[in-house]
Amino acid sequence: MYFKFSLRHNPSTSKTEGYCRLVESYRNASGRVCHKTLPNVGFIDKPVDIEQLNRIRRILCNRHEEAIGQPCLFEIQPDNEPPVNQLVEEYWSRLINGQGIDAGKQKTTQSTVRQRRMVDSDSIRNHDVRETGSEWLCLQAPEQLQLP
Fold first, then answer.
1. Of all residues in the chain, what percent are helix, strand and coil, respectively (each to 5)?
2. Residue 92 CB: number of other CB atoms within 10 A?
3. pTM of structure
4. CA-CA distance, 4 to 67, in Å (whole number)?
């Protein structure tokens, strides 16, 4: 998840300002990287700098991973700054209510994991399996030493 900005005319201030979107990157079934705009955040009226936006993004990503049942790699501490916490709560409610993400439906079951696989490894059957690695190595050693 990341914030994407584009310059637009803001009708309330009559200036050209950054219009903000919250975007998610993912890979589709064929392995191609795609982007999905979750909510259009719009013009941010509150004074927020880049570091605060990065903290907001990290907190939202952490909440999203918790909601879908993925283990979080890095523990994010809640922020003490009121504008950051207020924007996190506002964007999270927009994500959940606007169906940007489905927090309850994203938990994967075994059947959905199987459906997403290109090859169903549970259906592969091997008969008469033999290993030749150690035998091949033992054959190569005398040949390289030129022993009869």
1. 40, 20, 40
2. 19
3. 0.55
4. 23
How far apart, in whole angstroms, are the C-alpha atoms of residue 58 and residue 21?
A: 15
Mention every residue, 6+ apart, whose C-beta is less than 8 A from residue 55: 79, 84
Tens of pLDDT, residue by residue, the chain (148 residues)? 888 888 888 888 888 888 888 888 888 888 888 888 887 777 877 777 888 888 888 888 888 777 777 666 666 666 677 778 888 888 888 888 775 664 444 444 555 555 555 666 777 777 777 777 888 888 888 899 988 7
Contact 19, 6 (CB under 8 A): yes
Region for residue 79 given its phi and psi (left: phi exceeds 0; alpha: psi -120 to 50; beta: otherwise): beta
**Count of positions (residues) in the chain:** 148
Q: Which amino acid belongs to residue 85?
A: N
